[in-house]
Design goal:
With 114 residues, the protein is α/β, with parallel strands linked by helices. Helices cover 46% and strands 21% of the residues. It has a single domain, classed as 3-Layer(aba) Sandwich (Rossmann fold). It is built from 5 helices and 7 strands, in the order E-H-E-H-E-E-E-H-E-H-E-H. The strands form 2 sheets. The chain has a 5-stranded parallel sheet, sandwiched between helices. The chain has a two-stranded antiparallel sheet with strand order 4-5. The modification 4-aspartylphosphate is found at residue 50.
Length: 114
């Protein structure tokens, strides 16, 4: 699982949450370029992406991942789940802050649908 989040505390919390649930995690990557490089080296089973990273909006990375059949969960403090659903109906989204149980439920749901 790949995690891209430019807020380091939030990113480490996300990684800890999914790792403690038994998933192998790469990240957190704080910018799109490092997340893209990690994605190109190893295609993850799933990605949790902050919408706004240190070097830009994550949509190009998300679109490439979805084109390669990688489920994406958007994690944003800026966009509502409804706004994300309009652009990416197949993707899930979580608002910040998000309880750990909701993160795990979304991960499990995305992997089951995949």
């Amino acid at each position: 699982m790949l995690v891209a989040e430019d807020e380091m505390i939030v990113g480490h919390d996300l990684c800890d949450t999914v790792s403690e649930a038994g998933y192998i995690v790469e990240g957190p990557f704080e910018d799109m370029s490092s997340a893209m490089l990690a994605f190109q080296k190893h295609k993850p089973d799933l990605a949790i992406l902050d919408v706004q990273l240190g070097d830009g909006i994550v949509y190009p990375l998300a679109e490439q991942m979805m084109a390669e059949n990688v489920p994406v969960i958007f994690h944003s403090g800026q966009l509502t789940p409804g706004e994300v659903a309009v652009r990416y109906p197949a993707a899930q989204s979580l608002s910040k802050p998000c309880p750990p149980a909701d993160v795990i439920a979304s991960v499990q749901s995305a992997l089951e649908k995949h």
